[in-house]
Specification:
about 475 residues; alpha+beta; Gamma Fibrinogen, Chain A, domain 1; 2 domains; two-stranded antiparallel ribbon
Length: about 475
């Protein structure tokens, strides 16, 4: 519309020009014309000046309109991005709410089962008391019969008395068998009760974690700037179901458990704590570290590495205190699983034990087997280091700060499974040294795609042939 008005004004201005300039008659000066007679048309220069001004004004308006359109497009794009982000957060919140409802329903069912098991336990206890009383009466009868048998053995024993004694012995033998079977049934019921209570505890913890996650979504925090989540330190040992806990995952495997999941264990001399058990091989192994997608930042402080951090369902570090409680006896095997970006899978095993906090968790290793070179034998006697506690053998450099992550650094070597997770191989050598690496021989260091470190007793050690290819 604005361009049309400018064009119309220009046409009108041009239409006045012939009236002023295209007259073929010679101009005659009439001296007798009155002085006050004036032309009704504007001068040609004024018209041109007016036309140029209007053209410039139209051009400026066009530029202003184009600039405004660009700004409006930017605002619309930003609003679309915000809508998509808000929609994704809404979907995530809805999924968490659904999982929370399912966990609540499961918890109600398990609590009902727990009450039923408690009633059965009380009933079995009362039956046990009656059986024990019956056993006491039978023992008294047996003592009386033995005295009677002793007195009869001095004389001639009648056939009827012998038959009576044989029948009584048979009854006593049957009663003892019944008592033994009931005792076994009571033990099985007790084990099932402990297993149910452990599952209820796990579900309660998951429900609490989902509730916290829902609150976090509602507040919409900046999750990318948050640190690694801390693993739960220890489980309360006041409840009665903590009396029959396994010492590690291998004991759970011996009890018949075959599902790889999170369980409560209680190593000798330690408080109970949660741990992920790998049951995928012919024994149970307690997982102390896993890296697979870079979802957890392993560049943490000494306190975090001592207590543990991460998520059992993804990446995590169990904690130096718990690893020490699993291995301080010296009869443990450290099993390391490695996979590079070409999907080549390897493993290596060490006989090892870990000192306590007074020695900064000094590691002791003896190579056992594996299908990769061994760069860790020279780490025996090395203390653990983090970016805020430097215990390495390099006096002039803090290896944990330069290479990131906590590890047993021996003068900033090229082995560090807690380094930075790279999805693309870095080009520079100094940057590669900061990644998850296991330098093998003279080859250049490279960043690994997957690692898992687990612990199991020496008695569970299997051959190298059965280990290759079994990772997750």
């Amino acid at each position: 519309m604005r361009v049309t008005i400018v064009s119309l004004v220009f046409v009108l201005a041009v239409s006045y020009v012939p009236a002023l300039c295209d007259n073929d008659e010679p101009s005659v000066v009439h001296l007798e014309a009155p002085a006050e007679t004036r032309s009704h048309f504007a001068a040609l220069d004024d018209v041109r000046l007016l036309a140029n001004g209007l053209l410039q004004l139209g051009q400026s308006l066009r530029e202003f309109v184009q600039k405004t359109k660009g700004q409006i497009n930017d605002i619309v794009q930003k609003l679309n991005i915000f809508d998509r982000s808000f929609y994704q957060l809404s979907v995530l919140a809805s999924e968490i709410k659904e999982e929370e409802e399912e966990l609540k329903k499961t918890t109600v069912v398990l609590k009902a089962n727990n009450e039923e098991i408690k009633g059965l336990s009380v009933e079995i206890s009362s039956k046990m008391e009656s059986i024990l009383q019956e056993k006491s009466r039978l023992q008294n009868k047996v003592e009386g019969l033995e005295e009677k048998l002793s007195s009869l053995s001095q004389g001639v024993m009648r056939g009827k008395q012998v038959a009576e004694l044989s029948a009584l012995r048979e009854v006593i033998h049957n009663q003892e068998q019944s008592i033994t079977e009931l005792l076994n049934a009571v033990r099985e019921q007790s084990d099932q009760l402990n297993h149910q209570r452990t599952k209820i505890k796990l579900l309660e913890e998951k429900l609490t974690a989902n509730t916290l996650a829902q609150e976090t979504i509602d507040r919409m925090p900046d999750t990318f700037n948050s640190g690694a989540p801390t693993l739960s330190l220890y489980v309360s040992s006041d409840s009665p179901n903590m009396m029959n806990l396994p010492s590690d995952c291998s004991e759970l495997f011996d009890r018949g458990e075959r599902v790889s999941a999170v369980y409560t264990i209680k190593p000798n001399g330690s408080q109970p704590f949660m741990a992920f058990c790998d049951m995928s091989r012919d024994y149970g192994a307690t997982v102390i570290q896993r890296r697979r997608d870079g979802s957890v930042n392993f560049d943490q402080t000494w306190e975090q590495y001592e207590n543990g951090f991460g998520d059992f369902t993804g990446e995590f570090w169990l904690g130096l205190r718990k690893i020490h409680s699993l291995s301080f006896k010296g009869n443990s095997v450290l099993h390391m699983q490695l996979e590079d970006w070409k999907q080549d899978k390897h493993f290596i095993e060490y006989r090892f034990y870990l000192d306590g906090p007074e020695s900064n968790y000094t590691i002791h290793l003896t190579h056992l087997s594996g299908n990769v070179p061994d760069p860790m034998s020279n780490h025996t006697g090395i203390m653990f280091s983090t970016k805020d506690r430097d215990n390495n053998n390099h006096q002039d450099s803090n290896c944990a700060r330069h290479q990131t992550g906590g590890w047993w650094f021996n003068a900033c070597g090229d082995t560090n499974l807690n380094g930075k997770y790279f999805h693309v191989r870095p080009k520079g050598r100094s940057e590669r040294r900061r990644g998850i690496q296991w330098k093998s021989g003279r080859r250049a260091s490279y960043s690994l795609r997957f690692t898992q470190i687990s612990v199991h007793p020496v008695a569970s050690l299997t051959s190298a042939s059965s280990e290759s290819g079994l990772f997750r």
